[in-house]
Amino acid sequence: MPTKKMLAILASPRKKGSLATMLNHAMETAKSKGYEVHFISLYDKNIQYCNGCMRCRQTGSCHIKDDLKAIEELLKTCDITVMAAPTYFANIPAVAKNLFDRLAGVIMDDNEHMIPKPLLSKSHGYLLMTTCSTPFPFDRIAGQSTGTLKAMKEFFKTSGMHHLGNITYAGTKDKTEVPTSILNKIARKIPNAL
Fold first, then answer.
1. CA pair distance 150, 143, nearest whole angstrom
2. What is the reported pLDDT for 1?
3. Beta-carbon-side half-sphere exposure of residue 44 (alpha carbons within 13 Å)
4. Do residues 148 and 157 lie in contact, with contact meaning Cβ atoms separated by under 8 Å?
5. What pLDDT, in 10s, does the model give residues 48-92?
6. What sign for the dihedral angle of Cα 17, 82, 158, 144?
7. Whole-number Å distance between alpha carbons of 80 and 6
8. Closest by Cα among 81, 92, 75 to 150
9. Strand, coil or helix: what is 191?
10. Of 71, 95, 109, 188, which residue is the least packed, with the fewest Cβ within 10 Å?
11. Percent of the chain at pLDDT exceeding 90
12. Which helix (H) or strand (E) holds 168?
């Protein structure tokens, strides 16, 4: 039986921040549960902007030659994708939005009726994580962390993958450690690979 794979995507420039700690915990948990883990830091990749040519809708892949192709393949073949993006003005950072724009032809097919058809498997799951400096519950009341999660969920839901859950760590300003309750929640969301 082939090894199950997890794709971990960090959409934060802070490689030692709270969100990176949360994603690292997800990766370690996945390894302990039998997954082969693949990590991508979007801030380390050369991913050019979408030019709106729409060729990817016919070919299923973007024609621009950069680091996107490897991400495309991992997204298609991994059993679980964990996306970790901080909350920037109630939304995702530009690097995450750019990734989503460039992957449009990979995750959905616009048929003759112009109704998006998911291209990825329902057997693939996705887990979303965000951090937000606004404290709980105001992060949700003001639509801060919920805006970020909504933007990410729209992409993955459109792809056809199934949702494993959301992890939000609010009130991160001046905090140096991720609470154990958050780390435990992350561990519970990663299913066993066996």
1. 10
2. 60
3. 8
4. no
5. 999 988 888 778 888 999 999 999 999 999 999 999 999 999 999
6. negative
7. 5
8. 92
9. coil
10. 188
11. 82
12. strand 162-170
One-letter amino acid at 114 equals M
d(CA 148, CA 146): 5
pLDDT value at residue 176: 87
Tell me the C-alpha distance between 3 and 174, whole Å: 40
Which residues of the chain have a pLDDT value below 70? Answer: 1, 111
Distance of alpha carbon 120 from alpha carbon 129, whole angstroms: 21
24-52 residues labelled b (16+ CB within 10 A) or e (exposed):
bbbbebbeebebebbebbbeeeebeebee
- Beta strand 162-170 pairing with 108-110: unpaired
Cβ atoms of residues 61 and 82 within 8 Å:
no
